[in-house]
Structures are given as C-alpha cells and as structure tokens.
Design goal:
- This protein has 366 residues and is mainly alpha-helical.
- The protein contains 16 helices and no strands.
- The protein starts with 8 loop residues before the first helix and ends in an 11-residue tail after the last helix.
Length: 366
C-alpha cells in the first residue's frame, strides 16, 4: 500500500491537505522531483527534417523533463504547492535547489524565445498549467517564491498575452477528454486571474466560458471515457461553470446539464473506471488520472451545491458527494505508480486532488 492510498476518502474529498504528513509529502514529491531532471524519454511532437532533433534541454531549458513540456510545468507546480502547504517539508532543501536550477533568467528567456517562434505550442493545456504555476508562486508568502515568480514573469506575461489574443477567441469548445479540452484550460485561466487580481483576464475568460457553455443542457456523457481520456468532458465543463455562475444560477444550469444523474447514461459518471495497468500502458495511466480528476470535479460540484435549496441541490448533492469519495479511493490506489508512463505526471493530479481547496479561491468557486 502506497502512502497516498492510506489517506481516507474524507481527507481526499475535503481537498484541504489535512493528511499531508511527512510520509505523504515525500511520496508526492518523489516523482516530480526526479522527473523534472529526467530529459529522456521525451515526446518530440514533430520531426522537421532528416537531421537529429535538438535535445529537449536545448529547446526547453526550463521545462525539458517529465517526457513533455506540460508535465514538466505541472510537476514544478506540484513541488511549489507542496512546499507552500506542507510546513517543514522533509525534502524542502532538495526541492528548492532543483527549482532554483530550472528557473533562471536564461532558461526562461529560452522558453519565451521558443514560444515566440512557435506561438501555438502547448495551447491551451500547457498554458493553463503555466498560469497555475505563476498563481501558486503568487499565493506563497515566501522570498523564494517571490524570486521564482519574478524570474518566470516574462514567460507568464507571454502566455497571458497569448491567452487573450488566441485561446479566448476559440470559436467552439473542444469537448475531449485529453489535452485539448477547452473547459479544463479555461478553469486554470480563471483561477490564475482571480489569484493575481487580473480583472481583464478574468472578465474575458468568464465571457468565453459563458459564450461556449452557458446554453448547454443534457450533457452527452454516454461515450465517456474514450481511449486516452484523463478528464471527463462533462464534469470538467460543469467544474468550469461553477466558477462562472453564481450559486443559484449554477444549480439551475447543472440541473439541466445532468437531468438524470442516477439513470442511464448520466449515472456512468458516478462509477470509477476499472483500470488494470500493464507496464508502459499509457492509456491505462490516463484512466487512473481520469478517476482522480473526476474525484476533484465531483467534489467541487457537491461543494457548490452545499447549503443550497431547491430540486437541483436536493437531487444532485448526495450522489455527487458519494461519487467523489469512490473516485478518490479508486484513484489513490494506483496514482503513485513507478511506471514512467504514469509517474511523470500523475503525482501532480494527486497533489491537486488532496489540496484543491488550498488554491486561494473560496470553495465552490475553484
């Protein structure tokens, strides 16, 4: 049994890092700490010609590890989040040394240069995690966080500008369970904007979310999950809209979006996905992540209905809450795998689940 698996479903459901003792903190740190320094294997994405592609560390001097750029970014986020919420983290010195080595002015300048030359690179998934990393540094009242954010700021500003100029103008939502999911990225943008007090970005992100999703009803969930899904398109959309709508309008929206949560096909969202991973089975690792991300979405939706009255809250709150606990337990059993197909990214999802209400945003709105 891994350290994360010993955490109760109540603690995972709460999302307040109540169970973050030294053993859990070290277990959640081990893979990100190793991964951000691991250059190979690495996903190159494209081969431009017959010559060997440049080393990942040449293209991405700050975020070259963890198999791909976005995983390197959210592994940095996980390490910073753990330092902030775990007092006297047993690996504090090692984490600080590694992050110091990655976040230098020269390395960040190289990342900005690459993004300038490849403007759509990692849009929107990697962008949302970069903004979450910047927000985490803003939340942490520590001189090291201040220095790291100042170093990161040119890339933060570049991603913010790209978000306003490109991503928020998306014509239609991408309702997928993988990196292109529009709602997942919008939630990250909104959380960032609210943490750093960026009123313009918050307003534009809310406008985009409303334009894309406010009129949705009877969400299509019968096909979930598909292949390599690691987020639920339906639950991720609802998790976004709880950030956008006031509590009573959100309850009414959710009532129409999930009209029969205890009946087919919507009841499929209440049951964790069965996973039997084999070594190197990336699809299975994604399904482990799906159970974890479903857990935090379900818990967030239940929180958003807490204290509300009316048919939607009465009908949905208890099934959502119970399903959040089941998904958290299912995800915890497998999330700290040593298989690199999952270890290069799954710890970040585990950290988010355990600490989702440590993000500086009031529960029910983040």
């Amino acid at each position: 049994m891994n350290a994360f698996e010993t955490i109760s479903s109540d603690a995972l459901r709460a999302g307040r890092a109540d169970a973050l003792d030294d053993a859990v903190a070290s277990a959640l740190t081990a893979h990100p700490l190793d991964g951000i320094e691991t250059e190979y294997p690495h996903y190159q994405g494209a081969v431009e010609g017959p010559d060997a592609p440049p080393r990942p560390s040449e293209k991405h001097p700050a975020f070259y590890g963890c198999f791909d750029w976005h995983s390197a970014v959210h592994s940095h986020w996980a390490l910073v989040r753990l330092l902030r919420v775990a007092s006297d983290h047993p690996d504090e010195g090692e984490i600080a040394t590694v992050v110091d080595g990655r976040l230098t002015p020269e390395h960040v300048a190289g990342e900005v240069e690459y993004l300038d030359a490849n403007p759509s690179f990692e849009e929107p998934y990697g962008w949302s995690w970069l903004l979450r990393l910047a927000a985490e540094l803003r939340l942490w009242d520590d001189s090291r966080a201040d220095a790291w954010r100042e170093t990161l700021r040119p890339l933060e500003d570049r991603v913010r500008r790209g978000t306003l100029e490109s991503f928020l103008g998306v014509a239609r939502p991408h309702r997928v369970g993988t990196h292109g999911n529009t709602a997942f990225a919008l939630a990250g943008v909104l959380d960032y904007a609210r943490v750093v007090g960026d009123a313009e970005l918050e307003r534009e992100a809310e406008t985009t979310a409303s334009r894309l999703y406010a009129d949705d009803s009877a969400g299509v969930v019968g096909a979930e999950p598909v292949g390599w899904d690691f987020v639920s398109p339906a639950l991720t959309e609802a998790d976004l809209m709880r950030r956008v709508l006031a509590p009573d309008p959100f309850a009414a929206w959710l009532d129409g979006f999930l009209p029969d949560l205890t009946g087919a096909p919507h009841d499929a969202l209440l049951t964790p996905v069965d996973v039997e991973p084999d070594e190197g089975d990336g699809a299975a690792m994604h399904l482990i992540g799906l159970n974890v991300s479903r857990a935090w979405c379900l818990a967030g939706l239940a929180d958003a209905l807490s204290g509300r009255e009316g048919p939607a809250a009465t009908r949905l709150r208890e099934p959502l809450d119970a399903a959040a606990r089941r998904h958290a337990e299912a995800g915890a059993a497998d999330v700290l795998t040593d298989d690199y197909a999952g270890s290069h990214w799954l710890s970040s999802f585990a950290v988010y689940l355990l600490t989702r209400n440590e993000g500086g945003i009031a529960p029910g709105t983040a």
